[in-house]
Amino acid sequence: MLGGITIKEKAQILDREGIRRSLTRIAHEIIERNKGAEGLALVGIRKRGAPLAGRLAERIMDIEGRRVDVGVLDITLYRDDLSTLAYQPLVRSTEVPFPVDGKIVVLVDDVIYTGRTIRAAMGALIDLGRPRAIQLAALIDRGHRELPIRADYVGKNVPTAKKEEVAVLLQEIDGEERVIILETPD
Hints:
By secondary structure, the protein is an alpha/beta fold. It has one domain: Rossmann fold (3-Layer(aba) Sandwich), CATH 3.40.50.2020. 26% of the residues lie in helices and 28% in strands. The protein contains four helices and eight strands, in the order βαβαββαβββαβ. The chain has a five-stranded parallel beta sheet. It has a three-stranded antiparallel beta sheet with strand order 1-8-7. Helix 2 links the parallel strand 2 and strand 3. Helix 1 packs across helix 2. The relative contact order is 0.21. The mean pLDDT is 91.
């Protein structure tokens, strides 16, 4: 039950190994597209994008033998629905301890849905400097875009109904590792 609404687990999309394989493939695709890791930075969108960015950086290090900068972006104040939220938003810190100017920055998020989170993240990132390029990696793309935004790197495309939710559960945050579809009542 979530906020008085009964939510039912409908299906598991990825298990621990599926997540690992997806991230390894995304790391290879990032390296291939950018012809290596030179000038590359990964910025995870808080909350679950942050550990995913760290994991991608580890895989890139394993593959290329080169460390890439990793940061965490809080987009709370950049949301287009901030004024409609009934609660006091919790603003966390943005931790991007390197200049983004001239870098290829890969934004990392767990699920891309409407595109609004990514629009907010691009605004927050550009306020930090002028990257050479911004790319997007998402573990899950569930469709239903409201803005003309698409991921450059996707772990898994999962067509969903609007009444469904995709939950990415990560060991670092949730104490378990899997991706599931949740169904809320009409």
